[in-house]
Q: What sequence folds into this?
């Protein structure tokens, strides 16, 4: 199984996953890249899927479908699909949108706009609790699980994480060792550096208190970061 990450627009990240001669495109905002790759590699595009329905992630669907004949498959309500012999789990992660999903294979997960490096996506009004549950679902994956996000906001996200927890050695360690491409993290990394996932940490609570935010409830602290 190979995961090909490609960049398009200013910071979007799309993916082409293939096993043997069979491939699936995820959020293919640059259909030209996908078409060139599958032609050169001799692949057959089986399906086109999206982590959610925002236009910056679905913009390449129609062109790619027209050029290859591959169907655009709605992943909401599904629990898995196959690429070659490998089963890919579909994890529902509503919050950024109601239809957000993540795609998990053996040792990796494509998180779309649910989870970024040291950051998370925007949240729909009224869905903070649902979003937090979605993130907690991802945090149940093994720490070594590699995260492939939907955007590259890494530099500014790490800068903000350092502002929130200036004495956190894991943020410095991650920053010093970060060497893209590819633009990836792990579940374990995010537990150690992502302030949105660390709202029970004393340093994070102190930062929120100093900035006049709600610190009484864990969900309130999470909501404070989403504002």
A:
């Amino acid at each position: 199984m190979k995961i090909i990450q490609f960049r398009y627009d200013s910071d979007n990240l799309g993916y082409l996953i293939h096993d043997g001669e069979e491939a699936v495109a995820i959020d293919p905002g640059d259909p030209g890249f996908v078409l060139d790759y599958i032609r050169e590699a001799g692949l057959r595009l089986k399906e086109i899927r999206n982590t959610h329905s925002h236009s910056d992630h679905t913009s390449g669907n129609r062109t790619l479908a027209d050029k290859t004949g591959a169907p655009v498959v709605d992943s909401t309500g599904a629990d898995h699909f196959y690429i070659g012999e490998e089963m890919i789990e579909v994890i529902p992660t509503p919050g950024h949108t109601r239809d957000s999903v993540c795609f998990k294979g053996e040792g990796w997960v494509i998180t779309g706009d649910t989870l970024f490096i040291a950051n998370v996506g925007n949240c729909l009004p009224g869905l903070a609790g649902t979003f937090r549950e979605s993130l907690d679902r991802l945090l149940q994956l093994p720490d070594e699980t590699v995260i492939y996000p939907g955007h590259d906001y890494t530099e500014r996200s790490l800068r903000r994480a350092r502002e929130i927890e200036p004495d956190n050695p894991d943020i410095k360690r991650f920053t010093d060792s970060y060497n893209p491409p590819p633009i990836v993290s792990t579940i374990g990394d995010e537990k150690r550096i992502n302030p949105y996932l660390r709202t029970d940490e004393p340093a994070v609570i102190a930062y929120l208190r100093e900035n006049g935010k709600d610190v009484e409830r864990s969900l309130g602290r999470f909501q404070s970061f989403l504002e």
About this structure: DSSP finds nine helices and twelve strands in the chain.
